[in-house]
Amino acid sequence: MHTFTHHRRGTEPPPTNQPDPSVVPGPSNSTFMPTQSGARLSRGVSIKGSVKFLNELLIDGEVEGTIDSTGTLTIGEHARIRGEIRTKSVKVRGAVEGNIFVTERCELQGCTLHGDIEAPRLVVDENVTFRGNAKVGTAKSLPA
């Protein structure tokens, strides 16, 4: 048995206009919606507001505001971040002006960071410019 449905022309948008559910664009000064995994903010993208994600995010654009996640953040070499970062772990290759708080690992790779770091583990490669304070160790070993 076959069922045929007839739709009047122009009542349904073409399927190519379907947005990618993993990345939800928004106007400036809005909150970036949480994503499932493997999201990317490409070079040339600029967000003013808060960015939230669940698993993994690569930022190679500009963010002015807070970045908050229980996942892994990679800040690409072209990225410019102004604001606080709170994640499970972060790799920084671009420029960050703000404080970084991670629950597992912070890795600085050829980047510029003006701000403080709190992390159980900190890895700093050569060619890193870091101006700020670092509290490194487990929560039990960090002073209150």
Verbal overview:
By secondary structure, the chain is an all-beta fold. The chain has one domain (23-136). Helices cover 0% and strands 43% of the residues. It has strands at 39-41, 46-48, 51-53, 56-59, 62-64, 67-69, 72-75, 80-82, 85-92, 95-97, 100-108, 112-114, 117-119, 121-124, 129-131, 134-136. Strands 1, 3, 4, 6, 7, 9, 11, 13, 14 and 16 form a ten-stranded parallel sheet that branches. The chain has a six-stranded parallel sheet with strand order 2-5-8-10-12-15, with no helix packed on it. It is globular and about 30 Å long.
Supply database-style keywords.
ten-stranded parallel β-sheet, about 140 residues, mainly beta, six-stranded parallel β-sheet, disordered N terminus
Structural class: mainly beta
What is the approximate shape? globular
Helix content: under 10%
Question: Into how many domains do the coordinates divide?
Answer: 1
Unreliable parts = 1-15, 19-36
What percentage of amino acids are in beta strands? 35-45%
Intertermini distance: 71 Å
The whole-number mean of residue pLDDT values reads 81
C-alpha-based Rg, rounded = 20 Å
Sheet with most strands:
10 strands, parallel
Number of helices: 0
Total number of beta strands: 16
Q: Output the helix-strand order.
A: EEEEEEEEEEEEEEEE
